[in-house]
Amino acid sequence: LQAYERRFPTCPLIPMFVASDTVSEYKSEDEAIHVIERRCKLDIDAPRLLKKIAGVDYVYFVQKNSLNRRERTLHIEAYNETFSNRVIINEHCCYTVHPDNEDWTCFEQSASLDIKSFFGFESTVEKIAMKQYTSNIKKGKEIIEYYLKQLEEEGITFIPRWTPPVACKLESSTSHARRPVSPAINIPDSATKEGLNNKEVLNTSSSPSEPTAGTPDDKLDADYIKRYLGDLTPMQESCLIRLRQWLQETHKGKIPKDEHILRFLRARDFNIDKAREILCQSLTWRKQHQVDYILDTWNPPQVLQDYYAGGWHHHDKDGRPLYVLRLGQMDTKGLVRALGEEALLRYVLSINEEGLRRCEENTKVFGRPISSWTCLVDLEGLNMRHLWRPGVKALLRIIEVVEANYPETLGRLLILRAPRVFPVLWTLVSPFIDDNTRKKFLIYAGNDYQGPGGLLDYIDKEIIPDFLGGECMCEVPEGGLVPKSLYRTAEELENEDIKLWTETIYQSASVFKGAPHEVLIQIVDASSVITWDFDVCKGDIVFNIFHSKRAPQPPKKDSLGAHSITSPGGNNVQLIDKVWQLGRDYSMVESPLICKEGESVQGSHVTRWPGFYILQWKFHSMPACATTNLPRVDDVLASLQVSSHKCKVMYYTEVIGSEDFRGSMTSLESSHSGFSQLSAATTSSSQSHSSSMISR
Fold first, then answer.
1. Helices (H), 100-186
2. In this protein, which residues make up the domain named PRELI/MSF1 (predicted)?
């Protein structure tokens, strides 16, 4: 507490914390209770344009600290005073003594953000708020350690606990021995977690061990690392092996190549938990939208081929594939009006997939690992037309999708001939770009790219495009205005968008506590084979298969038993009526299977009888959480929208005749399975000529 109080009235370690004033203060007579309320002035790290629109330079928060020395607790509450009618922010922190060990300090933190309206920039404000909140949490440890060290330098190493006044002591039948407080502690990074429900146990006697390098049996071949992965420390190599092993155990053969796993590890500074989370989300996304097959199955519309001013152009001096984008010559408004947001997104995904393929080819050609590409963006011609709001919205969404699924693929971004309007576009876009990615940006105004430190430092003179003063003919389309005759109505674009993104055999479902998701399959001929392939996107579930001789009633929202729920994350359908009894009305034909979050499960069941089979995904209640499973601070973004009583699954089921079934009874090898083409060890099978009787 002594260290914490030194943060006021201002703190040099928190640049955004400009000043604070005490609004009110209360102390009880015995000094056990101390409540102080402050008004804090903050300089939020927000784009200057946004501050101008909002009409403020600073925002004010009210913070109330309630210290109870008798109970040994400190509660901190904060809420925003500025824009309180547009944005509602509430934060609560609590320090307590662990009930089982007085030398442990428990820390709990929660926050909520509700943006009602903000001049049309609600999404940008949300991103800024989340980024600022995460940054503040990360600095919490650094700040408290700074002031603890300051106290030690002043000779303050012991502060006695609060004891009742002398009069109270005489009345007490037992004396209270004074004990020294816990010494200053070192909070290991691996023990911290971020989240909206962020709980930490700070142990002064021991700390979680740091990850150790892999044993000799776990090491990768040195030549393989040098040839395909680049320089790795023993710790980084160990992280790669451990994450790959986890994927092998949970994803059953659908393992991405080491180069791809390494990208996600690098994007999260080799934090395995963080890398595993975003990698699993990306693999599920690729599978759901069939991204692996986009280069083979999707042909860009002619409008894109004619007016999208971008294309691949040789390679840079480091051997990275070079992509040239003449953004200033591109009619973004016309492309969005003619094609819609989804078609543009899909085209950008195909460009990224082509980039991954070219990286593999260049790795073979140059004999060294090349895992990223260079992008050259020419902004000559950029004007206010490019700031058309739907176009900027499409750009922001594209950036968000690419950042999440193609991390560490951009080696360098060269922005040339940036006009005066560029800072406005950069102000809108930059909050959505990862900090590590922003460090790779090089921006040149006018003809600065022709001087020292310019284009020739990164690209050979022989391949500089002709439109930049080079001698190499560039085949990138020149762009130009899209004819308005090609524009389509909002209804036409909406239908096209649905068509683009529903080209998937997988369905999504939400599973709630007390509300499983169930799929009905009717079997006419015995000895048919029910196959399934599903991913557990969120939470833990139990998978069951039941058989009934009679059909369940169609789900009705107003029925007392079976019902159906629609949610943004997928449907929830319940078929088994509450009055049905297991063993009388229906029977279990397979043992329940517990599936953890992130797992991919494929399987099959040979039916013994005709009738109705029900596949069920049920919420799996976890036992009480151990102290080692506390949420991390780095998960704060995801935690804002996570409910502990909701799971998500993405599934595909099919019924095929036994004579057409390829594979064992425990693994699905149907050609319909969406195995990722990023896999280097995917189980393959010949084309299945199955005759599906029923497909759900």
1. 122-153, 166-171
2. 1-156
Alpha carbon distances (Å) from 471 to 231, 447, 453, 463: 36, 17, 20, 7
Residues 6+ apart with CB under 8 A from 595: 536, 540, 541, 542, 543, 601, 620
Q: Is the model's pLDDT at 271 over the cut of 70?
A: yes
pTM score of the predicted model:
0.52
Alpha-carbon gap, residue 47 to 427, rounded angstroms: 6
Q: Which of 268, 289, 310 is the last residue of a domain?
A: 289
Give me the number of domains the chain comprises: 4
- pLDDT digits 0-9 by tens, 176-205: 444 333 333 333 333 333 333 443 333 333
The answer to whether residue 490 sits within a structural domain is no
Distance, CA of 292 to chain centre: 20
Residues 131 and 137: their CA atoms lie apart, in Å, by 10
Give the pair of three-digit tokens for residue 437: 């990615």
For residues 82 and 94, what is the distance between their CA atoms, to the nearest angstrom?
24
**Which residues are paired to 523 by β-bridges?**
611
Residue 659's pLDDT band (cuts 50, 70, 90): low
Q: Which two tokens stand for residue 528?
A: 């048919």
Does 477 lie in the same domain as 336? yes
Q: Is residue 688 domain-resident?
A: no
Half-sphere exposure of 434 (CA within 13 A, CB side): 19
**In the numeric block, which tokens belong to residue 629?**
């499973």
Q: Which amino acid is at 129?
A: A
- Model confidence over 567-591: pLDDT tens digits? 444 688 889 988 898 989 999 998 9
CA angle 593, 545, 674 (to 5 degrees): 75
Same domain? For 285 and 331 the reply is: no
